[in-house]
Amino acid sequence: MIKHGVLVEQEGKCFLCGKKGFKEIKDDVGILDLPIKKLLLCQEHYRVFHVGNILGQFQLSNILLSFILNLDDEVTGEELREKLFEMVPSAKVQFQRITPFDKTPASRLSPKDFFNSLSKKVVGQEEAKKRISITVYEHLRNIKLDNSKEKYNILLLGPSGSGKTLIINSIAEQLSVPFAASDATGFSPTGFQGADVDSVVQDLYLKANGDLEAIEQGIIFIDEIDKLASFHSQGTRTEALHTATQSSMLKLIEGKKVRIPQSVTGREGAPVSVDTDKMLFCFGGAFNGLHEIVGKKLGFKGSKVSLKNDASADIEQQIKSFEIYQLATHEIMVESLIEYGLSTELVGRIQSIVALSPLQYDELKTCLLDLQSSPTVTQSLLFAESGYEIVFSDDFIDETINRVMKMGTGTRALVSMVKKAVSQAAFDLLGTYNDEESKIIISSACLDSPSKYELIEGTSISDL
Description:
Layout: E1 2-3, E2 6-7, E3 23-26, E4 38-41, H1 43-69, H2 77-87, H3 89-98, H4 111-119, H5 126-144, E5 154-157, H6 164-175, E6 179-183, E7 187-188, E8 195-196, H7 199-207, H8 212-215, E9 219-223, H9 237-254, E10 257-260, H10 262-265, E11 272-275, E12 280-285, H11 290-297, H12 314-327, H13 330-340, H14 344-348, E13 352-355, H15 361-369, H16 375-384, E14 388-392, H17 394-407, H18 411-421, H19 423-429, E15 438-442, E16 454-456
Helix pairs in contact: 2-3, 4-5, 11-12, 11-13, 15-17, 17-18
């Protein structure tokens, strides 16, 4: 039962639905993150939990056995812990309850350490991951030497879905520091027509639960910074606001004391201030049209700079833009960004400009199928809770990837397309437990007509 917004146990009744209780389950290690250590469930909910628990144990046992058999002889305790956290994410959550942010010196990490950590989560982008790893290492070195005025900030150029936010979030996890992300389009110089730029520091405060030491070494990612540039503007009032917003943002990344209001801290007394001097600021944006400016500075003309404007050429255009950025020096990129409409002072505070390439077929396939957060894996676990095995056919996988490549929208489109394809099956079958080994086949036809899924009934597994 929910009382005043809090789950309350009802004696003799199911904790989830209030029906007559059947059996108790225990949560001795706090994995479920509930206010009590044991729960009473009705017969229906207990059966779902019991079968899911058995299947989960089977899967975890196989993963752990394979992991142990393939373990390197020279693996360190820290590496072992990180590998276990990858396999059992809830264990990391449990560990972080005890040590919210690691206070061990991050400066002991090398660029290779950052690169290897990124490679576990970020598909492709090998050159970008190397450059970012070096930049983060140099940033930490300068902070350690108390040379915060020479700290490094990062700008990621890349299309939507290329992994900008994921890369920065992964770095924050590796450093065990709080991370906050926001869109530049939501800011205004005064906060009257949008959020004040300082609000992203308030988000960081909340993420770190008020741990000032962790906050002041945190990472802030501001996406869509290209929308503040004047490249697509024509002297409008909006352009003036965007210029003022850039100035406000510059003060933040140069280092200032940001006052956290009592409404955020929940504390009475003296106001809390956060110093942004040692924070790592990262920016992202698609920067459509920037390749034309860079290309002209490199001496390219005509078709070498731009392609015909149609949907089928989107991915080609993204590849061409990436290739042009790769040829440009840092000085040319700085000049081009200033010409694009970012302020000279803001660009001058960004020491590392990194271009991300659009993901290709094999990389998108990995994102679709093989990552822990892949949409097919997520849907498989969702349907397994109701006793169904969901199978995505080869033609579905191939057609999905080809459509995403034509759209040029990267990994974001993968999630929406998979969700749409299984939507009818989810509506028809989820929530009513199936005690047979039944399969759901999702073919390419489901991309346009979700009702065309195929259900294959199986044999009873009630003996589990």
